[in-house]
Records
---
Amino acid sequence: MSSSANAVDICCVSRTFGSVKAVDGLSLTLAPGEVMGFLGTNGAGKTTTIKMVLGLIPPTEGVVSVFGGDPSRASVRARIGYMPEIAYYYPYLDARELLSFYGGICGLDPGVVKRRTGELLEAVGLAEAAKRPLKTYSKGMLQRAGIAQALLNDPDLLVLDEPFTGLDPLARIHFRELMRSLRAKGKAIFFSSHELGETELLCDKVAIMKQGRCVYQGPVKDIAGDGGTNLERLFLKKLEDAK
Amino acid sequence: MRTFLRQVRALVKLSFIELWRRNDIFAMFVLALALMVPLSMSTPFGAKGATRYLDEAALLLVWAYSLFISLGTGARLFPPEFESRTVYTLLAKPISRGALLVGKFAGAVAASWSALAFFYAMFAVASLMRGGFGYGADFVQAFVLHLAFSALAVAVSLLGSLLVTPSANLTLSSIALVAMFFFGRRLPAYADTVSAPLSWLVRAAYAVAPHAEFFDMRQRVVHGWGGVEWTVFLAVLGYAAFYVVALLSLSAAVLKRKKL
């Protein structure tokens, strides 16, 4: 595993489930300090790609590497933080216990977990609700707990599946600032989203998927802010072109 | 190794919190009271000598309830993780599926053992209140073998939870273990009375199914027959360990192939 390698390297990757090709010949890279938005309609192959980046499922063809290593290895996953799209956690735990549990799963020192728990609950705005059971949380609060658990091990790569779901406007602004501060620290962020506006505001580059194939990838600065093109228009055009 | 131990500890703690925050705990208190009150009387129902039979009934209840807790706890280890998709978050962390399985199993066993220890403690307290605790090494053996059986029951339901639906798992595991508990020792005699292929099936079940009755020392404890030879005791513990390892190995193979 090389520390100077790309955060994510996806090379000619395909994944089939029976006769269905969920991902077809995908190649993309994400360097440390970059933020990539991974866009597409439902069933485009975003979640399958995320599962391969996390080492949860292997590709049928091609290679996925994270920091030059195979993400199915625990030592590689130690550098990844993941937030799922649907944030259901253990309803009988409170936020502090949830982070303590995930800290143990990451193999972190209990002292480090305690310190990070305090910092993260403060950062995601859950400090006051930290002792309430998760079953009493709103969707947005669960999403914030999800962000906190993803950041617990101070990951070099953040993989976020629909991170804006359930967040109110203030929380979105807060979340965007948090992501920018992480990018400034050299963290790579790879997230899937249907929120084109948020993606345009946050990302360095985007990839657009349709029916398992990548129909566009490039820097956001090339498409945004010229008055004629924006991400929404590009997204619609690329999906139309791919028909 | 330190990482592995931290992971197992986190999973054990999770199982403990889950068990003790569910309503099961209230049912346990009610049952404990139901055990304590008659057992603590010197002449229950005005019938002298009835305590022995009450002790036996109480220990049977302890068996029934601990089986319910062990199977229930084991059966709940993985299905909710898959249903609520928390398994993705878990496996995206630097934990192997093997460590996850071992940690989950250890957690369920620890939680089941805590409930079992609670019941045996209640039984001992009730005996003391009646005028003295008259059990010795036989009681210790009965308790330890019961712990071993509890671990075995967790391993059975854990494997079942990875193969069939939760309700089917609980039903099949309960039937298999309860049937072996009551009828296991009679299977060879039964096989002699039926023709093939049923007799082959009965003999195969006798050879393969875990013999729950090996762990049952209620009669010895209640009637004061004394403990078993320590070599026999250790052999039964080894038998339980063999089954637990075999069942966990099968579970690991199933979990490795489980579609995510």
Note: Residues 187 and 206 of chain B are 6 Å apart (CA to CA).
---
Amino acid sequence: MSKSRGNSVTTHRLIAWLLWYGTWVASAIIVVGMTLEGLGYGAGTALLGLNGYDLVKAGVAMFILLPIARVMVMLIIFLYERDYAYTLIATLVLAIIATGMVMEL
Amino acid sequence: MEPHTVLWLFLAAFGASALGGVLGMASGIFIVPILTLLFGVDIHVAVGASIVSVIACSCGSAAPFLKERLTNVRLAIVLETATTLGALTGVLLIGIVPTSLLYGLFAVILVLSAQQMLARRRERAGVITAPSKSWATTLRLHSAYPDRALGRDVAYEVGHVPLGLLLMYGAGLVSALLGVGSGVLKIPAMDSALRLPIKISTATSNFMIGVTASASAGAYFVRGDIDIDIAGPIVLGSVLGALAGAHLLMGIPAEKLRIFFVVVLLLLAVQMLASAFGIHVS
């Protein structure tokens, strides 16, 4: 049985790494933001130029971007493997997601 | 927002997610009922916070599935064209759909989840052989996964892709409207239309949920519909609860918990249905 490319071990490991560490970094940003808010550095007031509300917002935004980054990584891998049909499919997914965001701007 | 409200939001999300994790169930389905029924949050705000927690749980739990090569990433990206398009439709509809209809639809999804939890999924007997001209063959979707018990790779073929795409569009739409992962719709689609082995469909469905939810969450975020004060503790509680549920609660008898969840899901369905008709029981 021929092994389909794109389902390779490297692809899986790379995406697993991205999602796992991305989850922890985004969670940590939210924890720091909520702690600052708890200490009274919410919106408007800042500690060392950081305010809690903005940090929590950044953490939430990072979570939303994480799966999108995962599709981008897949797109690059498909392109690198010269798998143009799948490069196109990944581009289509990104285009659909971008449409939703652009419509709301 | 009051610090103790933040703490309660965190604990509620943590508890729902940890208990759900024991049964391999996404907590997303509990977040909206918890927020609307217990905290009196507007359903649109609840959907916004819930959808972000759905992304977080999908990302946080993806790694082990990927490392075991249970996730079919090619199949996922193909189906994601349909789920994201469904999500986009949901984003356009959510402002138009009456709130009572959202509550009603949520009640239906809760009942379906309860039913799915009772009827356990069974592996399909027999191996299907896809015709050489099928979409799955053209798109080279057939793959193999390592089976620990057998100690070798087991090849599997992917079934009816067009029907799978259609069902995934519906799943994406429901996900965006209700702020749920809609695994409840994705998993039957993968089991019966695509005829995947259970492990593969669980892993691939979980993997797709993140992107599907990003498509709607991204639009809601840009629109300013995501209440950061509520989303923060909910997201954090969900992620940590899911991790804790997967690791710490193995000792809880799953069978009793299953019955407990069925009862909770049905009770929530009744409450959501009551809200649909404007009756608030508290």
Note: The radius of gyration of chain B is 19 Å.
---
Amino acid sequence: MLTLLLIAIPLFMAGAIFVMGSKSARQLALITGVVELLVTFAAIWVEKSGNNPELLTFNKQWIGPLGISYAFSLDGISLVMVLLTTLLLPVIIYSSFNKTFRNPHVFYGLMLLMIASMIGAFTTSDGLMFYIFYEFALIPIYFMILIWSHAEGRARITLKFFLYTLFGSLFMLVSLLYVYQHSHSFALEDLYAAGQALSAYEQGWVFAGFFIAFAVKIPVFPFHTWQPATYNAAPTAGAMLLAGIMLKMASYGLIRLVLPMLPEGVAEYGTWALVLASVSVLYASGMAIVQKKFKLLIAYSSIAHLGVLTAGILSGNAQGIQGGVMEMLSHGIITVGLFVVYDIIESRMSHDEMHRMGGIREVNPQFAFLFFVIVMGSVALPMTSGFVGEFLLLLGLNQYSTALTIVAGLTVVLGAVYMLRSFQAMMLGTSNAHTQHFAPLNQQEKTLLYIIVAMIVILGVYPDPILSLSNPSVETLLQGIH
Amino acid sequence: MEKLVTLVPLFPLAGFLYIIFFGKGFSKGFIGTLASSTILLSFIVSVLVFTTQMHGAHPAVVKVFDWITAGSFKVDFSFLVDPLSSIYLLFITGVGFLIHVYSTGYMHDDEGFSRFMAYLNLFVFFMLILVLGDSYVTMFVGWEGVGVCSFMLIGFWYKDMKNNDAAKKAFIVNRIGDLGLIIGMCLLFAYTGTLKFDDLFISGSDISGIPGGVATAIGISLFIGAMGKSAQIPLHTWLPDAMAGPTPVSALIHAATMVTAGIYMVARSSELYAFNEVASQVIVWAGILTSILGATIALTQNDIKKVLAYSTVSQLGLMFVALGMGAYSTAVFHVITHAFFKALLFLGSGSVIHGMGGEQDIRRMGGLKKHMPVTHLTFLIGTIAIAGVFPFAGFFSKDQIVAVAFEENKIVFILSLIVSACTAFYMFRLYFLTFHGKFRGTHEQEHHLHESPKSMTIPLVILAALSVVGGFIGLPHAVGEEMGMHWHWLDHFLQDAVVMPSMHMTMGTELLLMVIATVVALSSIAYAWSIYKKRGVLADEDKDMKSSAQKLLYNKYWIDEIYDTIIRKPVDRISDFFGKFMEPKLIDGLVEGTGSLTKATGGIFRMLQSGSLSLYIFVFIIGLIAILLSL
């Protein structure tokens, strides 16, 4: 029931906001976000208490003979993903509060539609439903970027983004259908059984299809070139939705679909994917080092961290998956935090070229301090959420290959290089003609930054509520494999 | 009783949070007192904890909260109270308190005073976590935490980009080491299934199953972490640059405590290293080479803090020599005495810099003896202590290291004597050039010369006293017996926490080595005296340096320049190649090429470019239909 509520509320509110027009659209959207968060807490409470588990599942046949059903179930892993979505949603909505959009009701309506779709993908226990939700989320974000972007060439950029990910997904569809031929049902349980019954070699090919689809979306080198341009063109709220939540559907897909369905395929024929993911870390870090614009730096640093995430998850053990779950949450928060920082800078400087700034700390020490905490989260300092995820991922990856761990682990060094370089360039030194009038933070900006910093620190100091929420589900998932 | 230990890091953390969030509007006096008293409170609790350990209490694990769970991997946020951690607590909070008090004087006129005190509190918090953590992961929290504090404090005066560059360099070089540490932890977990000291070492069985080659890899990986934190070749280059931070920082973080974290970690892992010949040899040679390198560079430096920084690098090297030879408690002994006299020397140099109005070049000093009597006397005591003159603190700990080297490896023994000779020489060179002869600064500086305030000189006096008597915690057999005192007290205290070497040195050899060490130190001091005091020779100006050996040392073997050429520039160049060619031309070119191919074949791309969404939905639906058809 709660699951259905989580999808129905944003869906209904999206409709309501569309209909009611632009007046108070953003307030309604924010309220929806907060309500969603409360429902999520309720669901977590139900899961932790262990009573009334039926509240967390929903199953109704859709096309019976074909084995397709509206099946949803919230286990610990799904709950963390839903929490990621509903924690970030109010933050993202609130971050756009001081901006004026054309047709805000359409903007927020699309946003909620997208949220409904993503929650669907995170909670369904039907393979085909996952595919549908996964694809459907693309449509609202496509419009959000196309209509509300100010970037030059946005039509071309958004098109490339759309086509590229759509094209990638076709590989997933083929793989899914291949397994379906053996299972005759899209229920995940049946797909797992049918997938595991395949030979390792067959599994390897099916895995390749899934991985290409997910690698485009995560994104993993060399399938990533749509991403920096898209982030750069997108309105910041859109970039937050993309980087913070939407792309996590792909890494979640690795955990939910790929690992339990094709364990031998990944273990025996998946090395190339782990290698690509590790190379991704190096390559994107190198790209981040040479960026002059802060937003592009965020984009590439994101790819680097997601490389570690992908490799760690694919190592297929409890540490890798737990690390993956934690890192998805943490990366979402930190990336949204970095985009908030970008927004604050951009609104004052009207550009984001780092070398033209400097000395902002002198003018606005509070902002510099909050930004610094987010930077520390990004470089995965212990006591920030970034550490817990990344450390577990490396711990997991090492059980697969120490060599790859060293390569992926270089993020520890290179992350510090590009993050500290950019922090220093923008914040430290003496202020110049551009930065000396850097305005103090307003109430909204302060609130946003404090919320994000609090989440980064709390999850870093005390990640146990999250980890102990997902741990039993991860263990169940792994038992299903062996 | 052990439960109390939680309070030890809690006080400084509370101090930090209070100053950061509520410190606005309070006077400097209040902030200074608050920050110092949190450390004093920690010190008092540490004394209690230490006393129970001294009276033979069993090591205890104090759990604070559940931290990380992932399948079979479980780490609590817990503290381990045992002799090793409790003695570290004692000198971290003790020396930390003195340096806090000193800072209230030294930083008094700085506009960032309360920020500075807050950072110092935070540093002490993380340093305490580092030594209290009951697993490698908890230790790593402190390990990285002190790194960030070091970063913030080196770049404390952030308006000057030089300081920021030094801070960034420190952080990044340390991170290279940290990667080693992380890999070490990963391997350790993969082969033992745990990262808790308790499981690994105290119960003892878990590490015995590790294959030899892996054990070596683990030992070396962990040591790479130590190299970063404790500034050993080839990761030593950040420490001299770190002197850009305010001097109390150099004393606390970059001499007494943080940089000895690597020694702590190896000592904590002694069971891992004890039977690990290869890794131990690596440690010995990295240590002795670093020690020689630091000591020789220090011979020619003219910045008072740089001399001390290279001296620290060199002394840390000696500690690793002890570790590599299996004398873990000896290394800890030298950590402690070094904390006393090196903190003293740094604070003394801070007092000099304070009096000189910010000047750090010893070529512009001279004759300060009469202007700064307390600073002079305490600095002299520190100089004698580090030079290794009987019976000052440095003598006993250094002598123990030399003795171990004599037993284990004669080449290292000779090299360590050379280090001792260099140490005595450069320290007395520094001392004579600073405090004797004629004043060589400007008239204005001379006019303003003054002894530092009480808040600065009292810590100097206490540290000087400790530098005199600190060595008695590890009196060698030969001396202890003679004086009827408890000998090798520290070894006895630490015997349950670290592996003890089986040394059987005769009293005669012991005495002979002490005589040799003394002769080396005294003749070195005499040599420095004859040059800088008797003949009044001054240090060369940069342009007068002629001999290539002098230039080589003065420019620190050009290691920074070499790194720049073989590491930084290639990384930048490769990144540039990625950015300019690979990404836009090769990878995206392929993607776009695929798109264009579609365009050429079917004209679909053009249709799509017109922005018609109906087509995408069409494609999406085609996909769905494809499913239905395939059923």
Note: Residues 270-482 of chain A form one domain.
---
Amino acid sequence: MTDKTILVVDDSRVSRMMVKSMIGELKPGAKIIEAEDAEDALKLLESHSVDYFSVDLNMPGMNGLELIEKLKPDNTNSKFALLTANIQEATHKHCQSLGVACINKPITEESVTQMLEYFYE
Amino acid sequence: MQTASSKILSNSVLDIINSAVIIIDAKLNINTWNNWFTTRSGLEPSEHTGKNIFDLFPDLKSTRVSDAIDNALSFGFPSVISNMFTPTPFPLYSVINFEEDKNFDDRIQQSISVARLNIDNEYYCLIQISDVTASVLRERTLEQQISERKLVEDALLKSEVKHRTIMETMVDGLIVFDNHGLIESLNPAAEVLFGQEEVDLLGCTIFPLFQELSEFNEEADLHDMFLMENFLGKSQEVLALHKDDHTFPVELSISEMQIGENIHYSALIRDITERKKIENLKNDFIATVSHELRTPLTSIRGSLSLVCGGVVPEISDKALELVELANRNCDRLLLLINDILDMEKISSGKMQFNLETFDLASLLKNIIKSNIAYAEQYAVELVFNDNKNKIYVSVDEHRFSQVISNVLSNAAKFSSKNGQVDIKMEKQDDQARISIRDHGLGIPAEFKDKIWKKFTQVDSSNTRKIGGTGLGLAISRSLIEAMHGNIDFDSEENKGTTFYITLPIVQEN
Amino acid sequence: MNNPTLLLSELEEDLLKELFNIGIGKAAATLSRMIGQEILLSVPDVTFQRSELLLTNFSEKNSIASISQSLKGKFSGEAVLLFPENSSLEVVKLLLGSRYSDEMLADLKQEALVEIGNIVLNACVGAVAQAMNGDFTLDIPNYNLASSSEILNTYNINPNDPILLINIDLRLHESNVKGYLAFIFGPMSINSLHETLKQLIATLHPTSK
């Protein structure tokens, strides 16, 4: 199985560290790149191709859902997961209509496993 | 588990308290509940022990209650669930209408608290439910009373909104104040006029805003003061004071209103700075033009006088007649121009008054003497009633004569032939009062105010017959007022007119 | 005690902010379910400050409404949710406005605020507890309305004591209300908190900067 590239977008450095660390344990072959906000993510995409996106909802500037909406058309073969502690009815519906996974924060082994299962299924 | 619940229930407190108590274990299964819950739910604990609480009460899934239970069991944190956000989560009903068909609306109003219990080293979750229906009902009745009152308030408010809109958009300034002069509201136009914001002036008195009112204070009886100064229902030209200390001319009128038991005043303020500017321009223009006219006119008159005086003996009688007519009209024109120039001087404050003290009686006698010839033209006699009073006044002789002559000539003009004009003077407190009475045509009521204005004629047809420019009274008033006096009249149509001129009495010096 | 604002490293502050974001996020989810509308709660800032600086966030004229719960465990102290009084009424109106008249809301404001405080405090302390695998106990919530000069007394705070101050932004429809979460710790507790944070970061990043 070829090594996949996973882009982790989160304004919290600690969060990125946690996700990276856990993915590292559960899927050691995966290549992980990080972005601290939407702008950063878009820039990275100019020079990298990404298979899976792990996107935090609550970010300054463009939020996670807006970023996913922007990226989806050009990345039809990629999968997206939205990470948030605040899962409300509206958020759920939005994720469903976009066809992306909604993963609950805090970032635990459980939630990361759930996300990876979604990516690699 | 049975041990735990019987331990709890053996404490019969649970069954005397006036609320429901449910106990579930760490796996969310029902352990037991108390009698209160049984009677309000119609469910026997023995029939449901061991069932998952969310299977038994599916309404509770994903609600505040389930979060609270989770918080309690996972962390041991207590929760309060107020009636406001979650009014009826459990299917509990009032004991009274229990037998009837129950639906959601019949549920009792609930207020819940959730906590964790540690019994025999096992965690349990305690859910306590109180019935708050009574207080909610009481609040609902209160709410209805309040909403009815609101309907009334709304109706009142609508009319207030209408008035408010007018207040907000009108161009003139409007200030509402109470009977102590304290400002209650200021419309946007007034804010702009005075360069102030409503918030800064609320509760301050209105008096400092106008030069003419600055002497007033909160103790004053505003009704009387306004009446005396002629602000009530009439407009007066006053000087308003802007926030940056400059004054500007405005027209101010004040109306009184009674709202309930309280008297309020509203002041309407119209900025007349522009109008005044234009008036001044107009006056300047008139003065300039008149000045320019005077010079050639004087030389025309000069030539005509010489001819009338006989400097051209060869002139025919017919020609002389025509020249005399031209001369007379030149005189009239010159008089008019002089009057116009005088008016301009007075209104721009440039007129010089040379005030001296005079014995009023002798002064009057002199003036009357100089007007006898004029009155004879109309076959009118001027009679002075000398009551031998020694009164002294301080006036400019030339200007005072001008005023008295003006009044005398009007009296003579408008008297009937062979009539008489009575002149007398008397003392009234600290004022000297001169009255000049004719028995002529009288001044119609509708002209009473207009007569003081420039260029008004009572009847222009009369003027053509009698002659006169109509400027006289306006000037006379200005002149007398400049000498600290007053001029006014009483009149009855076809009976006569009496003019009153008052001046302050001074000491002989 | 040295200047508390130097206590936290960038990573430590980031971690705390993320924890509170999670806690607040859960609180938002609960509140949103309760009122059936979308609410956004976010944590723009987390800082350690001298407690007297808390007052700079409130105008002297207005009173401060606060809901507090006593916290005991690895670190102990008081967890408090604070709003300027007029904001507190605004929050209640925003969440319940359609159901109740203004007069009723004014009467029932305290009850509503206690529950809101309870939800937020439970969620935040819960997020922290979960991350640290710690056991904490929380007491039932208390409501207080005090002027800004009295508020330090109400919570027995010395002006020089450090508090953990978290700014909270509540957004519903087009309205935006600002509130504050304050954690008042005893001196031992601050050290304990700091140690725990350091350990957590170490597990993530063995060579922490």
Note: Chain C has one domain: 4-204.
